[in-house]
Design goal:
The chain is an alpha/beta fold. The chain has two domains: about 375 residues, 3-Layer(aba) Sandwich (Alkaline Phosphatase, subunit A); about 100 residues, Arylsulfatase, C-terminal domain, CATH 3.30.1120. It is built from eleven helices and 15 strands. The strands form two sheets. Strands 1, 2, 3, 4, 5, 6, 7, 8, 9, 10 and 11 form an eleven-stranded mixed β-sheet that branches. Strands 12-13-14-15 form a four-stranded antiparallel β-sheet, covered by helices on one side. The longest helix has 23 residues. It starts with a helix and ends in a 35-residue tail after the last helix.
């Protein structure tokens, strides 16, 4: 006979509020997972959750690069509102996600949740770690403050173990640190042992929260599958896709470890698990950069491959298995979690909506529009593209070096900024690849949708109040995290001896 304590514990925690686990992959493309059609990816845990949960076909990140996309997920607001634009934060950035922004973690703390974050923060470090997660509602943090290519990564070991990283990264900055709460515990990070360390931390956090009968929020922002890829010895050389496939397998393995922890703690049936990615694949890395599937271009563009992402929601007994074609985005995660936990929404302008009806009733999304800002977001140019229901209009298009090397010229660095009047119009249901803009002869028949999208754009932009740019505050090398404060000469002295 099965023990009753997991069931009883689950009932106690259900009264306190559901557990929440959010997995955010890094540079994972729409076509990278087995459950989204990749023929050689080995992602059994993700595939199982997709089969038993709700898979989204039309799910978006609110930006096509790291920092703004993460700000949008945690705040439910376009990153223009919080000032996380243009571009991304660097090791010595003066700015960060403003502390007056309300994150998911801060909402849930008000409801008695314990909160933890693992992995890549990339929302600022600042003076003495001012912007780290522990100052943004997280009780615990174990991870790195920015992307793992922001450091001389050829000094780290990756593929296979004890060999140097593939490729080159940022130079002239400190080695990448590993931070626990607000203390640097490794510099440089030991990448081959990093993910197993994260897995142990996540499992301990979940089991401890369950033992304390506390509702919990775990945000796992994985480094996988961002270039340069790495994996522990258990996954190196094990996939059919080379180093990227190995890294993806390790991410999938972490999902499996955490799902097992939920089961062992008796809380799987009272936990919402949500999985998605921050932005599309870095196509300039070719087979080492990921795959956008049938979507056009990738990272750092406003084409679909830059911002439409794989997404899966799982909650056994609550979410009916299936696929939804409703429009949804990372902006919707905060209001959805607020609704499920009973938390009050922050008194600021939110851009997301509660997805409960989509998740639990196979219902309709309240999200009818997506607005696409470029990496170089500016008040002058504003929104580059708008999706309204099934139609998408491009007012500006521009390629990117990060989506270079594809046969499609529109994606490449020399596809210069181009204004379109009338806008390029696509029917994303008929043509999700954005291959065939509706022709001039077709346009008269679609004048109504062009006018509707124009109205949506005007309404949105008239209500957009740009926050002060945190990224344009600049960089100070003295702010780069260092395990030996005050040492000299920097950055070379910032390492363990």
């Amino acid at each position: 006979m099965a023990p009753l304590w997991p069931l009883l514990l689950g009932l106690v925690l259900a009264a306190a509020g559901p557990g929440v686990v959010v997995f955010l992959a890094d540079d994972l493309g729409y076509g990278d997972l087995g459950c989204f059609g990749h023929p050689s990816s080995r992602t059994p845990n993700l595939d199982r959750l997709a089969a038993a949960g709700r898979r989204f076909s039309d799910f978006y990140s609110a930006a096509s690069v790291c920092s703004p996309s993460r700000a949008a997920l945690l705040t439910g607001r376009y990153p223009t509102r919080s000032g996380v634009y243009p571009g991304v934060f660097y090791p010595g950035s003066r700015g960060g996600l403003p502390l007056n922004e309300t994150t998911i973690a801060e909402l849930l703390k008000q409801q008695g949740y314990v909160t933890a974050m693992l992995g890549k923060w990339h929302l600022g470090y600042g003076p003495n770690g001012t912007y780290l997660p522990i100052h943004q509602g997280f009780d615990e943090f174990l991870g790195v403050p920015y992307s793992h290519d922001m450091g001389p990564c050829q000094n780290l070991t990756c593929f296979p173990p004890d060999t140097k990283c593939y490729g080159m990264c940022e130079q002239g900055v400190v080695l990448l640190p590993l931070v626990k709460n607000n203390k640097i515990i490794q510099q440089p990070v030991d990448f081959p042992t990093l993910t197993p360390l994260y897995n142990r931390f996540a499992r301990d956090f979940i089991l401890r929260a369950a033992k304390q009968r506390k509702p919990f929020f775990l945000y796992y922002a994985s480094h996988h599958t961002h270039y340069p890829q790495f994996a522990s010895v258990d996954f190196t050389g094990k996939s059919n896709r080379g180093p990227l496939g190995d890294a993806l397998m390790e991410f999938d393995g972490s999902v499996g470890v955490i799902m097992k922890a939920l089961q062992d703690a008796g809380v799987e049936n009272n936990t919402l698990v949500f999985i998605t990615s921050d932005n599309g694949p870095e196509l300039m890395r070719r087979s080492r950069g990921g795959n956008a599937g049938l979507l056009k271009c990738g990272k750092a563009t406003t084409y679909e491959g830059g911002m439409r992402e794989p997404a899966v929601a799982y909650w056994p007994g609550r979410i009916t298995p299936g696929v939804t074609h409703e429009l949804a985005s990372t902006l919707d995660i905060l209001p959805t979690i607020a609704s499920l936990s009973g938390a009050k929404l922050p008194r600021v302008k939110l851009d997301g909506y509660d997805l409960s009806d989509v998740l639990f009733n196979n219902g309709k999304s309240k999200q009818k529009t997506m607005f696409y800002y470029p990496v170089g977001t500016s008040k002058k140019l504003g929104v580059f593209a708008v999706r309204y229901e099934q139609y998408k209009a491009h007012y500006f298009t521009e390629g990117s070096t990060l989506s270079d090397s594809t046969p499609d010229h529109d994606c490449n660095w020399n596809a210069l900024l181009t204004f379109h009047d009338p806008p390029l119009l696509f029917d994303l249901e008929a043509d999700p690849s954005e291959n065939y803009p509706l022709s001039s002869s077709d346009i008269p028949n679609y004048s109504w949708i062009i006018e509707q999208i124009r109205k949506e754009k005007v309404k949105f932009e008239s209500g957009m109040v740009f926050g002060e740019s945190q990224i344009e505050r600049g960089v100070d090398p003295a702010l780069e995290p260092c395990i030996n404060p005050g040492c000299s000469p920097r950055p070379g002295c910032c390492r363990q001896t």
